[in-house]
Specification:
The complex is a heterodimer of chains A (about 180) and B (about 625).
Chain A: E1 4-11, H1 16-29, E2 34-37, E3 48-55, E4 68-73, H2 76-81, E5 86-95, H3 107-113, E6 116-120, H4 122-128, H5 135-144, H6 153-163, H7 166-181
Parallel strand pairs in A: 1-4, 4-5, 5-6
Antiparallel strand pairs in A: 1-3, 2-3
Helix pairs in contact in A: 1-6, 4-5, 5-7, 6-7
Chain B: E1 2-7, H1 8-18, E2 23-26, H2 35-45, E3 51-54, H3 58-70, E4 75-80, H4 81-86, H5 88-97, E5 103-108, H6 122-129, E6 133-134, H7 139-156, E7 160-162, H8 166-169, E8 171-177, H9 193-196, H10 200-223, E9 228-230, E10 238-244, H11 247-258, E11 266-269, H12 277-286, E12 287-293, H13 299-304, E13 310-311, H14 326-339, H15 351-358, H16 374-385, E14 390-393, E15 409-410, H17 415-428, E16 436-441, H18 442-458, E17 464-469, H19 498-504, E18 509-513, H20 518-533, E19 540-545, H21 553-556, E20 563-565, H22 574-579, E21 584-587, E22 592-595, E23 615-617
Parallel strand pairs in B: 2-3, 2-4, 4-5, 5-7, 6-7, 10-11, 10-12, 12-13, 14-15, 14-16, 16-17, 17-19, 18-19
Antiparallel strand pairs in B: 1-8, 9-11, 20-23, 21-22
Helix pairs in contact in B: 1-2, 1-7, 3-5, 10-12, 16-20, 17-18
The chains are: A alpha/beta (about 180), B alpha/beta (about 625).
Chain lengths: ~180, ~625
């Protein structure tokens, strides 16, 4: 496989590091090299948070603009903020109402670049299961439904089982499954 | 062999344990904070006997590690780059004295800056102190370099610095690793006053020794072909070459591969100081022009000393502030390719979408104190109690008291207190009694509070000092403090209560309050104000003690108080501007403030805030 780059973004406290970890672990299980960059420190207190993940033989942990295959956004505005990272033909998975995304200002650019998107109210889904802090898992489940290479649904789910601390495991899976089963 | 994903700081910890590091000291600071906890994780899982401590500050940490190293053991000390300023006194002297066992100082830089006061470049500190330095590009390389630094430190009897930048510290990479074993070396300090207690006359001799060591190390660095190397072809001349060090090396490597420009020669300087001159001379001779990519300053450019040939910060081709992100490097190189009439990159980068995003008017996300944070309650009361005061503050989460208008200055660790006395005297000289309220966190107080407080008491300054005691070092990731008496590995240490230290500094007014009770704290502010103003008074210290909402989730909110906002709200916005809880927002459709129940932790403090009484306890 060529290098595959991903961007995860949202707000501090939404569990972006956990989401990145799941994807990195799932890739490692498949024998892929993983290299990623995270935000720690002051920005974690509610600021914009972005994680980079590279699968394959890369040297730098940072994704260059216009080279990411996937953008997973836990918050709509952060999806726009990180749009420059997406490569032509890339895909956005975003926590947003289907009709609300994308804003008309960016549509022509996305169309021109062949950038596609899938919007899903992940926070709402997590809230409905009384897990407001699990928007990340809902969006991961939603992503898994599209069977994007190299991640299969089963592998992501298995990774969540192995990485989640015991006391959160059941709830994490419940939210992940709800995202997976969502009918757009 | 196990394959595991390590944080860059974990990779450094792994390298330290592989190198048989026996003593490890640190003070937390982003981006270095996870190195020590990762060492502890390995010590526990691999049953090692490495001694580990959170020291009270970086100078203390380095002194401790230095003593271990000159007793023959392998030691390491880690900190963030501005922490090295605190340890600078030790650094400058230790390198003259040299070492016996290996001593590696890990100073983590923060180009950006993401979580620091400055973008200072540790490599210049190394040059100032005359300490050799290694500059890794990836977690894997940081792991290898820390072992190499330990070996070379022992061989040349001189401390080494490893300088990982934030993109190494907080990168994640999969690494293969194997069983770790204990280093059997025993402590055995050999007395040698001419070295370990050298007077200036001997220091002159030691300085001469140091210079000889550096010359020998520079030679060795030219031969370290796994970290200092180039890909020149023998006898070939090149119009343009690139010299890169640290994280920018990884970025340029990917760019040259992705853009199929492998014909541009690249010199990697993983060990930039002392400069491997043989290697750099070879490279400079073969290239007509050379682009230097390094973070965050101009060390290599200065050491090369060739203004005619070099593209870099001095020539204006590389930005002098901020991170050298891959896109920034791509743009720098492309500009030079155009300027030199060499073939530029096919696509010109990404200006269209960047402009588009700029113009979307996306919300600026400033960091804020967490919902339920006790500091918020403190700042609210402090500002209400002394609205005209100058608010000096310090380094930690509570810097974010800025958002509540209760922080005016943040200089460095401990400066809340020293600047409070400085402001007081500057005004007092004019006959003005300017109120000053200083705020400092518990960990920062233990780090650098006492010297300033002793000074302020001794010189009769008058101000209110509020120690924001949340029983943890929160901003850097929840490290324990001397106040709670739990040590780095979770074992029991001796707790040293703040009250005892503060009393020892000569303070007579010390009162504790739970800041969640804003009324009680308000009353205390009044009492403190009177004490400060009274002729027999002095500095009043209030200890605002309440556990951190993140570290002590259960205990921090003893009673869950659900809240809602009624139509009595007259949109005065006091709760939004002066209390600034992320769980409160202005609801445009309702025409009043509202509660985001997903974020609210039900601390109930906001009930005490609304002048209209519109924030009420939710009956449900």
């Amino acid at each position: 496989m060529e290098n595959m780059n991903m961007i995860f973004c949202g707000l501090g406290g939404q569990g972006i590091l956990f989401m990145t970890k799941i994807f990195a672990r799932a890739a490692l299980e498949k024998g892929l090299h993983t290299l990623g960059a995270e935000t720690h420190g002051m920005a974690q207190r509610g600021g914009s948070v972005v994680s980079h993940l590279k699968l394959g033989p890369a040297a730098s942990s940072l994704v260059r603009e216009q080279t990411a295959r996937f953008l997973l956004a836990l918050e709509e505005n952060e999806a726009y903020r990180n749009l420059p990272f997406l490569a032509p033909g890339g895909t956005i998975y975003v926590n947003a109402e289907k009709d609300a995304f994308p804003r008309k200002e960016v549509s022509p650019y996305m169309k021109k670049q062949g950038i596609t998107y899938h919007a899903f109210p992940a926070q709402k889904a997590a809230m409905a299961l009384k897990n407001p802090m699990s928007t990340n898992l809902a969006l991961m489940g939603f992503f898994a439904a599209y069977e994007n290479e190299p991640f299969t649904h089963d592998e992501l789910r298995e990774t969540i089982i192995s990485v989640s601390p015991e006391r959160f495991r059941e709830n994490n899976l419940k939210v992940f499954d709800a995202g997976f089963e969502f009918q757009p | 062999m196990k394959q595991e994903i390590f944080l860059g700081n974990g990779a450094i910890a792994l390298g330290l344990m592989e190198a048989g590091c026996q003593v490890m000291t640190s003070y937390p600071g982003t981006p270095s904070s996870e190195i020590l906890p990762e060492v502890i994780r390995l010590v526990k899982s691999e049953n090692l006997n490495t001694y580990v401590e959170w020291s009270t500050n970086e100078k203390v940490a380095l002194d401790n590690a230095f003593a271990a190293a000159i007793s023959g053991k392998r030691a390491a000390c880690c900190m963030k780059q501005v922490g090295l300023n605190v340890a600078a006194d030790t650094l400058m002297s230790a390198v003259y004295m040299g070492t016996v066992g290996g001593l590696v100082i890990i100073s983590c830089d923060d180009p950006g800056p993401h979580s620091s006061q400055t973008e200072q470049d540790t490599r210049f500190m190394a040059r100032l102190a005359k300490i050799p330095i290694l500059d890794p590009a990836t977690p894997e390389e940081a792991r290898k370099m820390v072992g190499l630094a330990m070996e070379l430190s022992e061989e040349f009897r001189i401390p080494f610095i490893l300088r990982p930048a934030i993109r190494v510290c907080h990168a994640r990479q999969d690494l293969a690793w194997d069983k770790l074993t204990n280093n059997p070396k025993k402590a055995s300090f050999e007395k040698d006053p001419g070295r370990w207690a050298a007077t200036p006359r001997f220091r002159f001799i030691l300085h001469g020794e140091l210079n000889k060591k550096l010359a020998a190390i520079g030679e060795r660095f030219s031969d370290l072909s796994n970290i200092n190397y180039h890909n020149l072809e023998e006898g070939k001349r090149y119009p343009l070459g690139i010299i890169a060090s640290g994280v920018p090396f990884a970025a340029i490597q990917d760019i040259l591969t992705d853009e199929k420009r492998d014909h541009i020669p690249l010199l990697k300087l993983g060990a930039p100081y002392p400069l491997p001159k043989r290697l750099t001379d070879e490279f400079m001779k073969a290239c007509d022009k050379v682009l230097v990519l390094e973070e965050t300053d101009t060390l290599i450019e200065y050491l090369l000393g060739d203004n005619q040939k070099v593209f870099g910060r001095i020539s204006g081709h590389v930005p002098s502030e901020g991170e050298l992100l891959p896109q920034v490097i791509f743009d720098c190189l492309n500009k030079i390719l155009v300027e030199m009439k060499l073939e530029p990159f096919a696509h010109k980068g990404n200006t269209e979408i960047n402009e588009l995003v700029q113009n979307l008017g996306l919300p600026i996300r400033k960091p804020t104190l967490c919902p339920g944070c006790p500091h918020r309650a403190s700042f609210f009361t402090i500002r209400k109690g002394r609205p005209k005061a100058i608010f000096t503050s310090d380094i930690g989460c509570y810097t974010l008291g800025l958002n509540l208008g209760a922080v005016d200055t943040v200089l460095d660790m401990g400066a809340a207190i020293t600047m409070a006395s400085g402001f007081y005297h500057a005004y007092k000289q004019d006959g003005v009694d300017q109120p000053v309220v200083a705020t400092i966190g518990d960990s920062t107080f233990y780090h650098s509070g006492t010297a300033g407080l002793l000074n302020a008491v001794y010189n009769d300054a008058r101000f209110i000092l509020v120690v924001l005691d949340n029983l943890i070092t929160a901003m850097t990731g929840m490290q324990p403090t001397p106040g709670i008496g739990i040590r780095a590995d979770g074992s029991k240490g001796k707790a040293i209560p703040l009250e005892r230290v503060i009393k020892g500094c000569g303070i007579d007014f010390i009162k504790e309050v739970d800041p969640y009770d804003t009324k009680a704290m308000g009353a205390l502010m009044k009492e403190a104000t009177q004490y400060v103003a009274s002729p027999d008074g002095g500095i009043a210290v209030i200890i605002a003690r309440h556990p951190c909402i993140i570290a002590y989730r259960g205990e921090a909110v003893p009673e869950r108080i659900p809240v809602e906002i009624t139509d009595d709200c007259n949109e005065c916005n006091l709760c939004l501007d002066r209390f600034e809880c992320p769980a409160l927002y202005h609801d445009d459709t309702l025409g009043r403030a509202s509660v985001n129940q997903a974020l609210c932790v039900q601390c109930g403090v906001c009930l005490q805030v609304c002048p209209q009484g519109a924030i009420v306890r939710n009956a449900e």
